Amino acid sequence: MSQTKLKRQMKSRHLFMMSLGGIIGTGLFLGSGYAIGEAGPAGAILAYLVGGLLMYLAMVCLGELSVVMPVSGSFQAHATKFIGPATGFVIGWVYWLSWAMYVGLEFVAAGLLMKRWFPDVQTWIWCAIFIVLLFSINSLTTKAFAETEYWFAGIKVLTVILFIIIGLAAIFGVISMDSTPAPYVSNFFGDGIFPAGIVGVFISMMSVIYAFQGSEIMGVAAGETEEPEKNIPRAIRTIVFRILLFYVLAIFVLSAIVPWQEAGVLESPFVTVFDMVGIPYAADIMNFVILTAILSVGNTGLYACTRIMYSLSETGMAPKIFGKLNKRGVPAYALLVTLGFALLSLLTSYIAADTLFVVLLAVSGIGGTLTWLAIAAAQIGFRRQYIKNGGKVEDLKYKVPLYPFIPILCIAMCLLIFAVMAFDPTQRSSLYWGFGFIGLCYVYYYFMYTRKNITLPINTESGTNPAVGDEI
Fold first, then answer.
1. Of 13, 48, 180, 262, which has the maximum CB count within 10 A?
2. What percent of the chain lies above the pLDDT cut of 70?
3. Closest by alpha carbon to 64, among 229, 211, 193?
4. How far is CA 468 from the centre of its chain?
5. Amino acid 190: pLDDT
6. Longest dimension (CA), the chain
7. Can you tell me whether residue 468 is helix, strand or coil?
8. Per-residue model confidence (pLDDT) at position 376
9. Is residue 472's pLDDT more than 60?
């Protein structure tokens, strides 16, 4: 172990595609049909627009913070400095737990997809192969990881673009579709604008928001990004609107071709549309794309977990050993522990499915929304401290527009999500278990740090604006 600090090896294209890859996944390829089935065509589009708005609000707040303080771990370090060390501790560990949990589930999902081509090979064998593959990728240099993720994400983006082009051509009769007349937009108005009512829109909105979570990965990578003051704002300007364009156009195509009542029960509406326009081996093509999407999410998840754990160790909130880097500049011990926990969480789905696994899943379910809320709260805290210490807003290289309206709206929308979960019986338990775990984290921090008067350092590995200072 020869290095002490992470290297800035990610380029603008890596940052952009990694953020895209964190969002375009099974939530679009498989979950889009559920959203349409719950809310109807117009309702699903509205749900994605609202989800995209919330993503935008969180991303611009994260952008201002990450340009001023571009450290690995990003929002965990920001929450520590601008909200409080206890909140930084909670956000870091909840986010790490959320991603580590999902990484374990992705291995199983990838193994199950391989059953289509190799039905006689047991799922655990494929799980083991993918574990070795992703561990190897993450053990390489940051540049090697970023390049791999760039091509993983590229496959997904290309698929969505082709789907939109082919789908639009089928909708307006440019290409034939099962010898049936072009549907145009008849499926949008057959049963009214909101056939399932406004309640259906709220229900689908939850799955939509979960699909968008992962965009904050851009902040996690800030400490390893070249010229963060240029590349982070550039990524934010392009990522939100392109994601919305991809998602909304894809939902429009699906809704126009597949009746909304059928969309919710299809395993993958993308396969259905490709089959209807006569693309050969449509199911195999989409199986490959979804496999790529799953491996991409698992790859990014391992990266996010190791950098968050590195950030926690830098501030004394995790053992120092997790902050040690190997000769390639990778937090190797953090990577090993993350992978080990991912496998243990996977094991709980078999031996403690109704107890421990439920709790882990509940914490994961609220982790992303809680992170977005903390990002907005930290941005407000930063701006207040910045001005108090003599900083001028016009001097910021990237600043949140319409301050303080945007961070306040972001916080309000996150709180609304939790309120909706409280009224939904299927998600209420996630709220109880999730916030119960968060409460335990605060109690643990109080007894282990606050009560012992332990002062923790702040992760400012790349320097901060002098107007911000280095004290908590």
1. 48
2. 84
3. 229
4. 28
5. 65
6. 75
7. coil
8. 96
9. no
**Mean pLDDT over the full length of the chain:** 80
Q: Which tokens in the block code for residue 131? A: 């574990």
Question: Which residue type, as a one-letter code, is found at position 436?
Answer: G
pTM for the predicted model, two decimal places: 0.86
Distance CA 340, CA 287 (A): 28
Contact yes or no for 52/240 (Cβ under 8 A): yes
Contact 338, 141 (CB under 8 A): no
Six token digits for residue 22 = 């964190």
Task: Report which of residues 465 and 201 the model is more confident about.
Answer: 201
CA 241 to chain centre: 16
Q: And the tokens for 191?
A: 């049963």
Q: Encoding tokens for residue 90?
A: 């909670």
| pLDDT tens digits, one per residue of 144-155 | 777 888 888 888
CA distances from 257 to 186, 247, 252, 268 (A): 9, 16, 9, 13
What one-character-per-residue DSSP string does 143-201 give?
HHHHHHHHHHHHHHHHHHHHHHHHHHHHHTTSS-BTTBPP-TTHHHHTT-S-TTHHHHH
d(CA 450, CA 17): 40
* Angle between helix 228-257 and 32-68 (nearest 10): 170
Distances (CA, A) of 72 to 76, 104, 316, 436: 9, 23, 15, 28
Q: Please tell me whether residue 325 adopts helix, strand or coil conformation.
A: strand
Q: At what angle do helices 405-423 and 32-68 cross, to 10 degrees?
A: 140
Place of tokens 């370090």: 77
Q: Give 220-248 as a DSSP string.
A: HGGGGBSSHHHHHHHHHHHHHHHHHHHHH
